[in-house]
Specification:
Layout lengths: L3 E5 L11 H19 L3 E8 L4 H9 L4 H18 L6 E4 L3 H16 L3 E11 L4 E3 L17 E10 L5 H10 L4 E2 L1 H12 L6 E2 L1 E2 L6 E2 L7 E2 L1 H6 L1 H4 L9 H6 L4 E5 L3 H15 L7 E4 L2 E3 L2 E2 L10 H8 L1 H11 L6 E2 L2 H31 L11 H21 L4 H22 L1 H4 L6 H21 L7 H8 L6 H4 L28 H11 L21 H5 L3 E11 L7 E6 L4 E6 L7 H4 L3 E5 L5 E3 L2 E3 L2 E2 L1 E3 L5 E3 L11 E2 L1
Parallel strand pairs: 1-2, 1-12, 2-3, 7-13, 12-13, 14-16
Antiparallel strand pairs: 4-5, 4-6, 6-8, 9-11, 10-11, 14-15, 17-18, 17-20, 17-26, 18-19, 20-23, 21-22, 24-25
Helix pairs in contact: 2-3, 6-10, 11-12, 12-13, 13-15, 13-17, 13-20, 14-15, 14-17, 15-17, 17-18
Length: about 650
Amino acid sequence: MAETFYITTPIYYPSGKLHIGNSYCTVAVDTMARYKRMRGYDVFFLTGTDEHGQKIERKAREAGKTPIQYVDEIVAGILDLWKLMDISYSDFIRTTEPRHERVVQQIFKQLYDQGDIYKGAYEGWYCTPCESFWTETQLMEGKCPDCGRGVEKTQEEAYFFKLSKYADWLLDYIKSHPEFIVPQSRANEMIKNFIEPGLEDLCVSRTSFTWGVPVTFDPDHVVYVWIDALSNYITALGYGSDDDNLYRKYWPADIHVIGKDILRFHTIIWPIILKALGLSLPKQIYGHGWLVLEGGKMSKSKGNVVDPVVLVDRYGLDAIRYFLMREMPLGSDGLFTNEGLVNRINSDLANDLGNLLNRTVAMIQKYFGGVIPAPGPSTDLDTELRQMALSMKGIAEENMDQMEFSAALTEIWTLIRRSNKYIDETTPWILAKDESQRDRLGSVMYHLAETLRFVSVLISPVMTKAPALIRAQLGLDESDTYAGWESLATFGAIPPNTKVGEPQPLFPRMDVEKELAELESLIPGGGKEQKAQPPVETKPQIVYDDFAKVELRCATVTAAEKVEKSNKLLKLNLSLGYETRQVVSGIAKYYSAEEMVGKRVVLVANLKPAKLMGIESQGMILCAEDDDGNLKLITPEGAMPDGAEIS
């Protein structure tokens, strides 16, 4: 029996049309699912939509529709997008489905009966877009610390889940299972920012709206989002139903892949719910970064989203899937620009892969009447190419198993570029002029064809159309002999005398400047946030003597920690070489304590000490601020020693 593999995306909130950033996460999970299937795993890939909540109820009312009418229309668009993106999910769950709602009610009742849920009253601040409650001290300048939008004062009767009861257990579990939350920086963030400061019990029901799963024993309440939404990962498998075969087969999940903005819910609330239910925890939770634009994270409210349908229609599905997986390492934020997209397609797909296929098939047509010849005696160049191709199986597996798709594609492209160089080194056009070199020419053609077959298999998890088109031009069918992952273990699968097809360009070259100009009309500003630029406010002119009063010095951050009861402040220790300074800086929204350690900064060293939150700050570090108020550190360039004066 094949080994199972269960992988999930977050379930998307149907508040409007999905953008390319949403596609980024789903394509990544689809890539992993396809790879695992090629490796012989029995894969279950889950995605879906989280459809309850106050925001949906309000938007439906504004649109003159019932909530279910409102979400039905949006979900239809999401399903169309996943079809366009060739997402090979096993199941698509909607939290409005009876199979889900019934089990959510059972889970809520079980947690209540065993004393993990109790009735109380909530008073505090609520962010409707994020569906999150916040205390006064958690707010950032009176706004939601996650999305930066306004919050509402809320007071209502509610049920609470005893998160605090399980805090010590969770901290112990995360520390003793370093593979549980990846990348490791995400685990550190959860521990430092949420668990160690102390978990508060979680509000898990609402009475101020009705669009949700009713609490069976108290119908004035509906189950609040996180018990409802998070439970989808097991309700989709039939947990708590008459048929739980899928649950017993696939749970626990191998990987939950989720955005860093909802990491807290998946790494704190979800594990504690499972622990309270006596269920196994997922093996790993992977917090991926955002696909961002110049101007910040994509957001419909900012008007800076990129429509994936426009891009797929213009460049084809494989080009967009390749760009998403190649350009952005999954654990980090990645920047989307029109120029980056066009250059990547032109360079990697048209100039490298497309050119290699076109040259190879055209030369086989020209020199051997369209028939792949048998390989002759090998030279060192042949051996080098063959060994490089054979090494790719292990290299790809090492990277793909860690969801390092960008690294895997980078390695695969070294083989493609080496093959193009191999053509230049072997000079088939010169060999073709000498009949005595015909066997040598045949060997070159065979090695190129077989290497292209290798490439077609290696890129199959990412690109879903091009691999079969490559094999078709090489005259190969889709059997495992030519298209299966294990076929990468042997170089020489193509039978001699295989008739190739006609050379067809997979990815036509583009005039970059012309294409960028045309793309600008479809994605104005290269995906950059569009806004009117306010006049720049300048300060009065000063003379040199005024500036000379400021003492600026290079420094290195040697230690950093969050200031208790503040979401804005970090306490930093700075090395000046000749002494250490303590500085309190309002950059916690933009830099975690962990990532600040080791950074070089510019310190205003002669600023009069001041106390912030009762902590003395002996100076100020310099940052630049963009139009949205986001801060970036100013750092000294080059190997300047700590304490060096800036003048």
